Amino acid sequence: MHVRRPATLASLAAELGVSRTTVSNAYNRPDQLSPELRRRVLDTARRLGYPGPDPVARSLRTRKAGAVGLLLTENLSYAFRDPAAIGFLEGLALACEDAGTGLLLVPANPEREDVASVHRAGVDGFVVYSVPDDDPHLAAVLERPVPTVVCDQPDLGTVDRVGIDDRGAMYELAQHLISLGHRRIGVVCMRLARDRNDGFVTPDRQHAAHFHVQRNRLSGLAEAFSEAGVDWSQVPVVERFDHNPSSGASGAAQVLDRDPQVTALICTSDVLALGAMTEAARRGLRVPHDLTVTGFDGIRGAEEAGLTTVRQPVLEKGRAAGKLLLDANERSRPRSVNLATELMIGNTSGPPRGGAEERWFGP
Amino acid sequence: MHVRRPATLASLAAELGVSRTTVSNAYNRPDQLSPELRRRVLDTARRLGYPGPDPVARSLRTRKAGAVGLLLTENLSYAFRDPAAIGFLEGLALACEDAGTGLLLVPANPEREDVASVHRAGVDGFVVYSVPDDDPHLAAVLERPVPTVVCDQPDLGTVDRVGIDDRGAMYELAQHLISLGHRRIGVVCMRLARDRNDGFVTPDRQHAAHFHVQRNRLSGLAEAFSEAGVDWSQVPVVERFDHNPSSGASGAAQVLDRDPQVTALICTSDVLALGAMTEAARRGLRVPHDLTVTGFDGIRGAEEAGLTTVRQPVLEKGRAAGKLLLDANERSRPRSVNLATELMIGNTSGPPRGGAEERWFGP
DNA sequence: AATTGGTTCTGAACCGTTACGGTCCTTTCA
DNA sequence: TGAAAGGACCGTAACGGTTCAGAACCAATT
Question: Do A226 and A218 meet the contact criterion of CB atoms below 8 Å apart?
Fold first, then answer.
């Protein structure tokens, strides 16, 4: 008894006394051979334990992998913890499903600069979701000769892009707060770069932020409040590397410790905002009476909490990214899609306590 | 100006006047050639726009795809909506990440019997998660000559398996309810087979259920309550095809309409149980005073709601599946891993209203 | 009898790479 | 000074398919 090498298309053809072409056709083009022969091929295949054409070899020849790659900056598992990321994934998965395409989650450990995983990925295209714009994995993706769609990234001009108007949406949210009378505010934002910096953020760091989304949200805030006469450089902005409610809570605490007089706490994500709410409650601050809290994203938890936030269509974003990628028919000019957002005014925003600002600056 | 064919390792070698082996070594085994030559190779590669060795060709030659496939029965996007599935995915993603392996989500539309996606997947192994045991996609996976791990599936004896003791865990939960005095109960369960059957379930259908997990949970219940003297064939068991809270609500409604006297509603998942709670509230039934409700899984929402349930380590399940697969070193005998569960007694279970049962059957 | 057309099947080229087993040329050391 | 060791590089043979231009055959038409 010897170890039999697994059957291949060639060995099957030899066994049958037909050409490899015929065996190939039996699987891929049934109309190209007589039904009897086809049956004989398939029967023999079963008898020999031939599992059908090898997918990798087929991919090599046809130049199609039947899968798209997804690059996330975070540890791969992070994606399954962030509600917005999950929504994006769901949308992308839907688009892939429609096209019968697989979705390959590419491991991109942000710690190591190991880009091999990008090189090793057998895919027909990439979707890059919210990575820092100086991420080496992103650079590696852009070098691969396959279509790419970036999402929540700056428009590179060379590849398709889908996103929202983070800056404009945050500007609008700020306007809402300004109209309520808020002038003394604090901000809690997500990480701005690849290095950990849990603490206050200088204006320089804000401008130089490598995460497009955060940079633009902050810039929308800065613009609106500057126009309203607020000296943005004096506004406490706190950054948190990890993205979860307890980061939001500790960030809020840091802002409130620095300036207990802030009337509004603006968070650049709902997850952070929900944490900030917890911290407010811990301090006995009633929202919105004593403190206004706002978020961004429009996740389910935010809705349940009645959070004032900006709703963005995360699922649609994923689906749009997938569609753009899978329908990269011809070398048309790179497309750029902006999806609509919606300001959701909940019950966590209201006029500052006692309307102090209005009294001081009113007519 | 002509369309230049993309550079390959061979064309690069020709350009440089070295062998293909050398170019290959420049990328894969830097120690096999002099630093100067390597630099020259890499520089020329950049100049010619050669993106590095083609991953598919490499996979063909090395017989490694660098990815594992995940097969789910549901529409691919379903995975991102079910908390337990998300937990599993996260665990699996963690294991893959550790190994530097990609995770390919294989589209397996349960509508079509189209198994091509399984054949097309270039992977080094498969994880199969909670599909009906007669699913053609599962059969297709088993035909592929790669290691496979099934999760929440019956032990096939031929491939590795990871899961929990669904039957035992549900038996234990039932014991808890029995000890509280419940004898008149109703059940809401998830789909039992590939066909849609939103309604009452015959004992036959319970036995023949194609979803291993549901079959065993029901069987654990049946065993415990039968031992307690309950005629299981009279217990209303309602099935729901879709898995979401509103299915739980409508399922609960159907049970309560049939028998308003039930004192406990046992749901085979937390998601269903949370829906059942909503329905109870809608009917003005206080939980647990008027009605006991239990779930299964131990998702976050259940914890927050104080649901009596069985906690199972979903993340660990995913991680274990990944480890088993990635460490499929030698042809050892197929392994079978059972993870521990924990009965979580919350505040949704209590003695039947007025202790009626006890009074009727007491000493 | 020659032409046409349609099936059915074949042969050879090709996809882009890596594994394997060399060869050749310098050093090193006794 | 010769043998052994080691570094640097190369040629060939897969890896397992798909594709495309025909060849062979047969029936029907001209």
Answer: no
